[in-house]
Amino acid sequence: MKPHWSGVFPACTTQLKQDQSLDLPATARHLEVIIESGVSGLIMCGSLGENQTLDPDEKRAVVRCAVETARGRVPVLSGVAESSTAAAIRYACDVEKLGASGVMLMPPMSYKSDPREAVTFLRTVAAGCELPIMIYNNPINYANDITPALFAELADEKKFVALKESSGDPRRVTELRLAVGDRYAIFTGVDDLILEESILGIDGWVAGSGIGFPMENQRLWELTRTGSWDKARELYHWTQPLMKLDTHVHFVQYIKLLVQEAGLGAEWVREPRLPIAGTERDQVLRVIREALAKRPV
User: Across the chain, what does the average pLDDT equal?
Assistant: First the structure.
């Protein structure tokens, strides 16, 4: 059952209306642009997709929208952010019925698991669903750290096929390769580490900010695949200020504002998040507009 996941799997936003209701037609339009850029997959309802603030029915509606928009052209994965093991299993089973190709799974954000609890959670969800799984490791933002040693311990579960590495430490890529070899497809989850981690040998990229400039983002990835490092660095120098928008506590608001400025969607977010305002807004808009004004041909 092991799929060959590689390439750019962007983390996509959930487009909303100003009244905070779902805007599925706008979500579909943005996904169409992203797919046309040449990506290899889509990840819906991750942190950037505001999973934790969506109602259960809304999350399923977003996944259904993505599957219908993709029409089999690329696999659609869904983030899993349920707070209990049982709810995570139910959700994974439901999105499978909706046509999702896999899930991106991490220990619940609402509880800081110890290693035994984290491993038990991941194994139990895998046993309760049939979908292949990308394990998401983000100890900086979500407290739980799935170390290379734990990935080695989990390697016997065939449903674990990939991992999104977001520890912020490029050394983890090498440590993972030494610990588990090519057992998993390794995706970087930190935009502004894409060049460093490409050199170390990754299989894919869960891109965040790149949904605001999907053609250039895809081009950057392709340059890393051919080892065209001079051209990659040149393009990266343009993208880097925009990629930094993905490493801030307000990354959802920042990237949605980028998407809006690029003409690909709207900035509306689900409360308790609010659109950024004041000096912060002015500063972020300056970064976005200066970059877009110098957009490569």
Answer: 96
